[in-house]
Every structure is written in structure tokens, then in C-alpha cells.
Amino acid sequence: MPDHPHLTPRDFAGVLDIAHDALAEWRQADGAGAEEESRTVQAADPEGHVRATIGTDGRVVSVDIAPRALRLPSEDLAAAVVVAVNAARAQLVQLSRETTRSRSAAAWDPTRMMRHQQAAATQVGSLIAKLSAMMDAAGQAAESGGASDRRQ
User: Fold this and answer.
1) What is the pTM of this model?
2) pLDDT tens digits, residue range 64-75?
3) Would you say 50 and 44 are in contact if contact means Cβ atoms under 8 Å apart?
4) How many Å apart are CA 106 and CA 34, to the nearest integer?
């Protein structure tokens, strides 16, 4: 009996392995700077009555109130706190965007990605070749089966 081409789970897993490796490398490079020191951002209301400090984890570290702010009506003081905290949070969002952008740029290695893409193309090409060979073998078997039926 002739050796017919066949597919194995490994044929499909090879393509997935390449994608998994590429993703793992990107995540590792992207997370390389993730252990950065804990930083804080500060902002104040326009009048300088309140200064808020927020950590990179998003938690309020401190709220400093100037002595002259204690003479403000409670509504005005509360509004100054809200303005200062929101301004600090806005700075934190900007810092986060900049950090993410710089990490992503550092993690991007076109040479490494091209290597993964070429390996995937080779693996997919091999898979397609096997599928074509199986289809050809199935077509030949059907033709020879039909020919033997006509002889009888």
C-alpha cells in the first residue's frame, strides 16, 4: 500500500507555536521596564490652595492644604480638592501613556518579527503542501475506485 500523506496535530501546532513564541518575546520585551520605581505625580488647584499627590498605582498619596485655604467656605475648599486631585490624575494618565508608548517602541524589533513571520510562512506552506498532497491522493483513489467499478 502506498504511503499517503497525512496530517498530524503537530502540523497545526507548529504554526501556533511560532505565534506563541512571537507573542511571548514581545511580552517579555514589553514588560522589561515594568519594574520601574514607584513614582508620583502632583498637581494643584489654580489658586494653590490644595496640592494632591497620586502614585503610579492610582491611589492618592497625599492632599496638602495651604493654611490660608482653611479660611475658605467648605464648598470652595472641597472644589479645590477635586480640582487638584483631578489634575493629578490627568498627569498620571499622561505619564502612563508616555511610558506605555516608550516601552512598546523599545519592544518592537522588526528583525525578530520578520524571523517569526518567515518561520510561520514556511510552516503554513508545509501545511498547505500536505493538504494538497492529501487532496491529490484522495482524487486519485476516487478515480481508480471508479475505474475498477466500471471494469466489473
Assistant:
1) 0.48
2) 999 999 999 999
3) yes
4) 12
